[in-house]
Amino acid sequence: MKTLNDADFKDKRVLVRVDFNVPMNDRKEITDTTRITETLPTIRKILNDGGNPILMSHLGRPKGEINPKYSLASVAQCLSRLLNTEVLFWEDYLQPGAVQKSKELKPGQVALLENLRFYNEEEGADKAFAKTLAGLGDAYVNDAFGTAHRAHASTAIIAEFFPQNKYFGFLLDKEVKALDYVLQSAKAPFTAIIGGAKVSSKMKVIKNLINRVDNLIIGGGMAYTFIKAMGGTVGNSLCEEDWVDATADLVKEMTLKGVRLYLPLDSICGNAFAADCNVQYIDSNFIPDGWMGMDIGPKTIKSYAEVIQKSQTILWNGPMGVFEMKAFEKGTGSVGMAIAAATSCGAFSMIGGGDSVAAVNQFGLENYVSYISTGGGAMLEYLEGIELPGIKMLL
């Protein structure tokens, strides 16, 4: 495993796969620069060595068509401000002369290629496309954990053209080490907090984690599939009927392995999926027809906080409720606060998944947890025990 500390990039053109798939508003203004700022150490290392970073990324799903809506031009401007230097924006990187253009970069210059997904060859893992990209650089660095689970041209195939000069970027290295710590070296008690809408999307993660954790806390819409699997009534709450039996089997497996399962004791329920619906607190096992669980209630918050406070390792993926609505944000916010408090007492806490990261930022807790992952799908697949193509090709 070669990292940037193993290299000197003086006078080298360094192709860097980054994940600049950042959220933007209707005015093409970036609303969260986290994924950009997290790559700055890698970019600065290359610049300080005397090399030229040539950055590659995708943005959104343009489906192989050139679409201004998904242009990275705004990202180039943002990166220029963060680096306090001009970032060249290249739209013609597949044209004849692009290689020569890359060789004419002056010391200290940075370039960003236009959206790779404007070309179907990127997601199609086209070898000729990867070879063309490879011609722009003398070395390859992958610093895009968020796309490491995709076997695309710029994340996996391109590494074949740099057998001796391929490296983990600082961000990718940090992500892998944090996940490996959680999966292999976690201090007990180890508590995993899994939330979100559907148990089907988290089943493989949970199956892998129950071989490692002491406590499993469940929240969000998926909790009601668990509750129904254990004989409860969930009214109009989100429930995956096709997964009730598989969930019941999963609960039995947890019990046999000695994992303590924590489900919502009470729920804040609404009579409609709306911010202004009628609300009442209901025992999570006896939710009547016409009502749906939208957040965990006060008894559950207290129960979950007590478990979290006693934990030495905490993994959080997925919110506890519909935290985007003011009436149903307290459960997610309270769990975040409990994690922050445990971290201040010495626990290691790792947060991942788009909604969980958004929640941490919404409640101002980003500086009070140990590690926030930049990868949603990649983190989940890593936790499932899947070997990620973007990492495998660097080894």
Structural account:
With 395 residues, the protein is α/β, with parallel strands linked by helices. Helix content is 34%, strand content 17%. The protein has 15 helices and 17 strands. The strands form 4 sheets. It has a 6-stranded parallel sheet with strand order 3-4-2-1-5-6. A 6-stranded parallel sheet has the order 10-8-7-15-16-17, with helices on both faces. Helix 11 (298-309) runs parallel beside helix 12. It is elongated and about 70 Å long.
Structural descriptors:
Rossmann fold, 15 helices, single chain, 395 residues, six-stranded parallel beta sheet
> According to CATH, what is the class of the largest domain?
Alpha Beta
What proportion strand? Answer: 15-25%
Q: Can you identify the CATH superfamily of the largest domain?
A: Phosphoglycerate kinase, N-terminal domain
Query: Averaging pLDDT over every residue, what do you get?
Result: 95
How many helices?
A: 15
Largest sheet: 6 strands, parallel
Question: What form results from the Cα inertia axes?
Answer: elongated
- Any guess at the CATH architecture of the largest domain? 3-Layer(aba) Sandwich
Number of DSSP E strands: 17
Strand line-up of the largest beta sheet: 3-4-2-1-5-6
Estimate percent helicity.
25-40%
Tally of distinct domains: 2
Structural class: alpha/beta
Q: What is the gyration radius calculated from CA atoms?
A: 23 Å
Separation of the first and last Cα atoms: 6 Å
Short description:
The protein is an alpha/beta fold. The chain has helices spanning 34-37, 40-49, 73-83, 98-103, 120-123, 127-134, 170-184, 203-209, 223-229, 244-257, 298-309, 330-344, 354-362, 377-384, 389-392; strands at residues 13-17, 52-56, 87-90, 110-113, 139-142, 166-168, 190-194, 215-218, 233-234, 260-262, 266-270, 279-283, 286-287, 292-296, 313-317, 348-351, 371-372.
